[in-house]
Design a protein that fits this description.
By secondary structure, the chain is an alpha+beta fold. The chain contains 4 helices and 9 strands. The strands form 3 sheets. It has a 4-stranded antiparallel beta sheet with strand order 1-4-5-6. A 3-stranded antiparallel beta sheet has the order 7-8-9, with helices on both faces. Strands 2-3 form a two-stranded antiparallel ribbon. Helix 1 crosses helix 2, helix 1 crosses helix 3 and helix 2 packs antiparallel against helix 3.
Length: 187
C-alpha cells in the first residue's frame, strides 16, 4: 500500500446490492426516470383494464356504474399488485440473480484503496484503477457509503464492515474534492 492510501476490505451481500438499487431508484435523476416509466406502465394497465370493463361489445353500451366499480377494483388489485412487484418481487429477483446467476462473482471479497489520485480496486480476478473524475457522487445512508459512478454502477461500502467509518469517508471526500477542485468543478 502506497503512502497516503486508505485501504478497506469488503465482502458484499445481495442485501447491499438491493440497498444500492433502492437508493439509485429514489435518489438519482436516471433512477427516478426509470421508476416513472414503470409507474406509467402500471397506470396504462390500470386504465386498460377499467376501460375494457366499461364497454359492452354485445350491445354497444357504456356502463358508467360498472365502470366506477371496476375502476375501484382495478385500482386496488392492479395498483397493489404492481407496487408489490416493484418493492418486493423485484428485489427478491435481484437477490436470487446474485446468489445463483452469472453475477455471483460480484459477491467475491474486494479491497479498495483510496488515494488522492483515485480508487484502486483489488479482487481475486485482478486489479483496477479509477480516477476520482469517474465518480459522479458520494452518498451516505445509515448502512452504506456509495461511490456512484453513473447509471446503475457504484462502489458499495457497507458501514458495518468499515473499521473507521469517519476516517474512510473523510479520505474518500478529500480525494474526490481535490480532483474536482483541480478540474475546476465544484465538489
Amino acid at each position: 500500500m502506497a503512502e497516503g492510501e486508505h485501504q478497506v476490505a469488503i465482502q458484499l451481500t445481495p442485501e447491499d446490492y438491493v440497498a444500492f438499487s433502492a437508493w439509485y431508484h429514489r435518489r438519482t435523476p436516471e433512477g427516478r426516470k426509470k421508476m416513472r416509466k414503470l409507474y406509467a406502465l402500471g397506470v396504462l394497465l390500470f386504465v386498460a383494464f377499467a376501460w375494457s370493463e366499461m364497454y359492452d361489445p354485445k350491445n354497444g353500451i357504456m356502463h358508467r356504474e360498472r365502470y366506477a366499480v371496476y375502476m375501484a377494483i382495478s385500482a386496488v388489485v392492479i395498483g397493489g399488485g404492481y407496487s408489490f412487484f416493484l418493492w418486493y418481487i423485484r428485489p427478491t429477483l435481484q437477490r436470487m440473480s446474485l446468489r445463483f446467476g452469472d453475477r455471483k462473482q460480484l459477491l467475491d471479497p474486494v479491497s479498495y484503496s483510496f488515494a488522492r489520485e483515485g480508487v484502486i480496486i483489488r479482487n481475486q480476478h485482478g486489479t483496477g484503477r479509477l480516477a476520482w473524475s469517474g465518480v459522479k457522487e458520494i452518498a451516505r445512508t445509515p448502512k452504506h457509503l456509495f461511490l456512484w459512478l453513473g447509471g446503475a454502477s457504484a462502489f458499495i461500502l457497507p458501514v458495518n464492515q468499515l473499521a473507521d467509518v469517519a476516517e474512510t469517508e473523510r479520505r474518500i471526500r478529500e480525494g474526490y474534492s481535490a480532483a474536482r477542485t483541480a478540474k475546476g468543478a465544484m465538489p
